[in-house]
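Q: Study each token:
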Amino acid sequence: MDLRLSGKRALICGGSSGLGRAVATALVAEGAHVALLSRDAAKLQGVADELNATGPGRAVIAPADLSDHASMLAAVDVAEAALGGPIEILLNNTGGPPPSGVSGLEPDLWRAQFEAMVLSIFRLTDRVLPGMKAMGWGRILNVASITVVEPVASLGVSNTLRASITAWAKTLAGEVAPHGITVNTLLPGRIDTPRIERLDAARAAANGITPEQARAEAAASIPVGRLGTPEEFGAAAAFLASPQAAYVTGSLIRLDGGAVKAI
């Protein structure tokens, strides 16, 4: 299937590794041009160099820290200048907080995580929406987690804040649909990324087992019997970012190998 993404301009948050890098790779393979946003400029450049060596799309970098909103918004200006026009595809993808419950946490921790994980997404989206509306076309993809459907006790802050993103996204989808803009939220389960490795290590330490045992136990609990690959996640995101997915909006899309038990 030709996804008709050639020449489209995308801004990819968290583009230096994991799910963000996987989406950027899939888009570049379809001929889209991507701006990679994360804190580590050197790491971003390495990813951009790899993507540019494969093409057919191209990659540029726009370093910024999502917790520093002024820096983040300035990075959008850099991205649009480098790509030659307004952002047409936005991947909202933020890092997750350390494992914790929800009771007894300091208000400052909640504020800091809300600024980095939630408010940054709201502000970044508001920054690119006028350009999308002027073009009459746009794609906004948000990376959340299956924990917004089936909360995990040890990921209390993530459960809570990512759930707020899904409600915001559903509301936004109705507001911008008349402008040819879709808004969808991807709910990854256990995709084989560095974050999952860190979570496995934390669970292993808490339970007195090895990270390899923690990983094997988790894989055994998934109906397909394995972790998902970043490439599988990237392929799904590329479809949702394409003109072919024009009738898909306001949706939560699970990529979990059947792990969530709810209908």
Remarks:
- The beta strands are 9-13, 33-37, 59-61, 89-92, 138-143, 181-188, 252-255.
- The two ends are 29 Å apart (CA to CA).
